[in-house]
């Protein structure tokens, strides 16, 4: 009998990605409703120590595959290991974050297990014993409801920064199962890992984001946004207009064709609030907008709005926030 809601515990450099905790929190509720166990699947090298945190965030069981060949992510090795585990244990569902790794691995696993995959889902519930997902279309203007009536396991990649994270239960331990790794033939070779080093928080994991839009006028003025961000320990984001103009890297773009973020505080400076930008940040807990046009669309989603010139407002805000 198929059993278990599985969460692929994505980690990098032995640090668990936030989306893993989001998936465990959602998975806990689903597992309880279906009367199944919640399992995390943790692959990597020297990662066994991470199992404790997965237990505290809700996992009943953690499958740990700790192996030299899993030190760097390769689809070949990871899919072989996860597919073997799934064939042996027949989970009901396997959840991934809709990240670069989750998209790649989830789709490969679906192909390997001859099942389907729901991609970029933003919610999941149990309805009539089935897992039912919502996924946005047209930058969130419409939603598709998807379910997999027969295929098992159901494979789903959930959009990061959308699902709420439950408070961890300190000291709650998961059963740890050390599983064998049959990585198989690894055809992919990692030659080089290019990483942008920044002292600022990663955009999708940040608690506070300060974002600049076309209103900053030029690349030089993005420094104003960076200074405000640095004063409050925030990540720097931007709109696509800023990226298209070559003022800031695409890696920092928020929106439909950029990153989806959900920080506690999002400060939008000189951003009009186009639907494609809102698609990536409207679930932020508190939105502050600075715009000189009082009719700007961004004010419709903002909790606090400042109508004014960002070149005057941002420096004042920075100095005042520094005092706190
Ligand atoms: P604008 O719309 O030009 O707004 C600039 C704002 O700055 C204005 O509201 C203006 O009043 C204000 N301003 C000007 N000067 C000042 C000042 N001195 N002080 C204060 N305020 C000032 N966009 C994204 O952001 N992310 C995406 O992922 C994305 N994906 C897209 C995908 C598709 C398929 C398409 C078609 C578009 C996409 N876009 C995306 C583009 C989107 O439609 C908008 O063009 C873009 O978001 C506009 O960026 P902006 O708000 O910075 O610029």
From TrEMBL:
Locate the residues binding FAD: 214, 239-240, 253-257, 270-277, 291
What Pfam families does the record tag this protein with?
A: ETF, ETF_alpha
Q: Which residue spans adopt a coiled-coil conformation according to this UniProt entry? A: none
Any idea where the Electron transfer flavoprotein alpha/beta-subunit N-terminal domain is?
5-192
Q: Which UniProt keywords apply?
A: Electron transport, FAD, Flavoprotein, Transport
Name the cofactor(s) required for activity, per the record.
FAD
The record describes how the cofactor is bound as: Binds 1 FAD per dimer.
- SUPFAM superfamilies in the record, alphabetically? Adenine nucleotide alpha hydrolases-like, DHS-like NAD/FAD-binding domain
Q: Which branch of life, at top level?
A: Bacteria
GO biological process entries: fatty acid beta-oxidation using acyl-CoA dehydrogenase
GO MF entry, a single one: electron transfer activity
Q: Which family does it belong to?
A: Belongs to the ETF alpha-subunit/FixB family.
Entry protein name? Electron transfer flavoprotein alpha subunit
Source species of the chain: Desulfofarcimen acetoxidans (strain ATCC 49208 / DSM 771 / KCTC 5769 / VKM B-1644 / 5575)
């Amino acid at each position: 009998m198929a059993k278990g809601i599985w969460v692929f515990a994505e980690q990098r450099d032995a640090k668990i990605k936030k989306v893993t905790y989001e998936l465990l929190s959602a998975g806990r509720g689903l597992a309880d409703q279906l009367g199944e166990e919640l399992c995390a699947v943790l692959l990597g090298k020297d990662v066994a120590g991470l199992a404790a945190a997965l237990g505290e965030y809700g996992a009943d069981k953690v499958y740990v595959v700790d192996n030299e060949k899993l030190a760097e992510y390769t689809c070949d090795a990871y899919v072989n290991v996860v597919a073997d585990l799934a064939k042996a244990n027949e989970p009901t569902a396997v959840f991934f974050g809709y990240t670069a790794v989750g998209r790649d691995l989830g789709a490969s696993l679906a192909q390997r297990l001859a099942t389907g995959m729901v991609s970029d889902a933003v919610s999941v519930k149990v309805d009539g014993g089935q897992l039912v997902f919502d996924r946005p279309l047209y930058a969130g203007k419409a939603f598709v409801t998807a379910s997999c009536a027969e295929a098992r396991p159901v494979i789903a990649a959930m959009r990061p920064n959308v699902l709420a994270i439950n408070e961890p239960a300190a000291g709650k331990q998961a059963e740890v199962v050390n599983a064998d790794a049959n990585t198989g033939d690894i055809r992919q070779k990692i030659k080089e890992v290019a990483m942008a080093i920044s002292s600022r928080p990663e955009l999708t994991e940040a608690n506070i984001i300060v974002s600049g839009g076309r209103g900053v006028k030029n690349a030089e003025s993005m420094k104003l946004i960076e200074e405000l961000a640095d004063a409050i320990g925030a990540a720097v984001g931007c709109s696509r207009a800023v990226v298209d103009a070559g003022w800031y890297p695409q890696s920092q773009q928020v929106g439909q064709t950029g990153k989806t973020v959900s920080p506690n505080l999002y400060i939008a400076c000189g951003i009009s609030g186009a639907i494609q930008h809102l698609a990536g940040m409207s679930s932020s807990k508190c939105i502050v907008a600075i715009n000189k046009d009082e009719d700007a669309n961004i004010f419709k989603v903002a909790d606090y709005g400042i109508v004014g010139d960002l070149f005057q407002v941002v420096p004042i805000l920075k100095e005042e926030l520094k005092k706190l």
